[in-house]
Design goal:
Blueprint: H1 11-27, H2 38-56, H3 61-86, H4 98-105, E1 111-112, E2 115-116, H5 124-142, H6 147-164, H7 173-185, H8 197-216, H9 228-231, H10 233-247, H11 254-261, H12 263-280, H13 286-320
Antiparallel strand pairs: 1-2
Helix pairs in contact: 1-2, 1-10, 1-11, 1-12, 2-5, 2-7, 2-10, 3-5, 3-13, 5-6, 6-7, 7-10, 8-10, 12-13
Length: 324
């Protein structure tokens, strides 16, 4: 086992989280409506991280994931419910009743407004995330060594079964890409490229070109089709691999790392900022429109992360995660 690998801060991965969140934000701005592939990058990262964190320590695996995901998600859901009762125009794509509230809070997919998604629209990805966490957890119970193989078989089976019912979103396959990345990246001899700056720049260039390619693929052409895990998933996998290797052992500038730190808050909070601007401030010129939505979303995310997410997560971990 490469002990150095398990004592690293992956600043590049954290920065990539931030880029993925900003990409999704841009997708929800009316004058852009592209960038949803940030979700594909997120899923690749998630597959890698779950394998990484479960390699040396499996204590409280599910509780740690719940503490990380649930509090902020519930908070934004509460805001959405309150907002719906104050101004239905902003939440006109939202369906709210007792049944939908419970299904949203417990990550049960349901059809609202003709689409399978919870009250907080961007929360549809969290349904997949929570499913993946449970699958990984169960796989570890069966065999820790072969958890990625077991989880991959289960994920493929779910996709095939869903296809039989006419639901063909193959984004679940991208968790497998992330797990595969873990097995590849954990075995690389990074000392061979440590002092070869040109190799890092080549990898970053490949990542950039893959990112540009994703911008050239219209989201609505492959929103949930069988082609998505190829058209969007493979470039997302390449981006993750290249960024990881290129930034391994490199100290990334703090603003980029901080963007990754607040990425979860940014991902959940930006949607309603974009909705307000799309509905009431569509007269603002394109560039200024983008700057306003991005700026306000980043400010709200930073406040949310520092005041709510970070402190509450720390408190809950201390209270709920008793050392075994």
């Amino acid at each position: 086992m490469n002990k150095t690998f398990y004592n690293q801060r992956f600043d590049g991965v954290q920065a990539l989280r931030g880029l993925a969140a900003v990409s999704v934000l841009l997708h929800h701005i009316s004058c852009i409506e592209n960038g949803a592939f940030g979700v594909d990058i997120f899923f690749c990262i998630s597959g890698f991280i779950m394998m990484y964190v479960s390699q040396l320590n499996t204590d409280h695996f599910l509780w740690k994931r719940i503490i990380r995901i649930v509090p902020m998600y519930y908070f934004i859901t509460l805001i959405a419910i309150i907002g719906y009762n104050i101004n239905k125009d902003i939440f006109d794509r939202t369906v709210i009743d007792g049944k939908y509230i419970l299904q949203s809070l417990f990550f049960v997919p349901f059809t609202g407004s003709g689409k399978i998604m919870p009250i907080v629209k961007v929360g549809w990805t969290l349904n997949y995330e929570m499913m993946f966490y449970v699958i990984i957890w169960l796989s570890m119970k069966i065999s820790h060594k072969y958890r990625s193989l077991i989880a991959s078989v289960v994920l493929v089976a779910i996709v095939l079964i869903c296809k039989g019912f006419g639901f063909t979103n193959t984004v679940l396959i991208e968790f497998i890409y992330g797990m595969a990345a873990y097995h590849i990246l954990s075995g690389i001899k990074y000392e061979k490229i440590r002092d070869k700056a040109y190799m890092r720049w080549i990898l970053l260039f490949v990542a950039l070109m893959s990112y540009v390619f994703l911008w050239c693929v219209k989201y609505m052409d492959y929103p949930g089709s069988l082609k998505r895990f190829i058209i969007k998933g493979i470039p997302a996998f390449i981006i993750f691999m290249c960024v990881f290797i290129a930034t391994y052992g490199v100290k990334v500038p703090k603003p980029f790392v901080f963007l990754g730190d607040i990425s979860y808050s940014l991902y959940l909070a930006h949607y309603y900022v974009a909705r307000v601007f799309n509905k009431y401030f569509d007269f603002i010129p394109g560039a200024m429109h983008i700057v306003c939505v991005l700026g306000i979303s980043l400010i709200l995310a930073a406040i949310s992360y520092n005041v709510f997410e970070k402190k509450l997560n720390s408190y809950l971990r201390k209270k709920l995660l008793v050392k075994g």
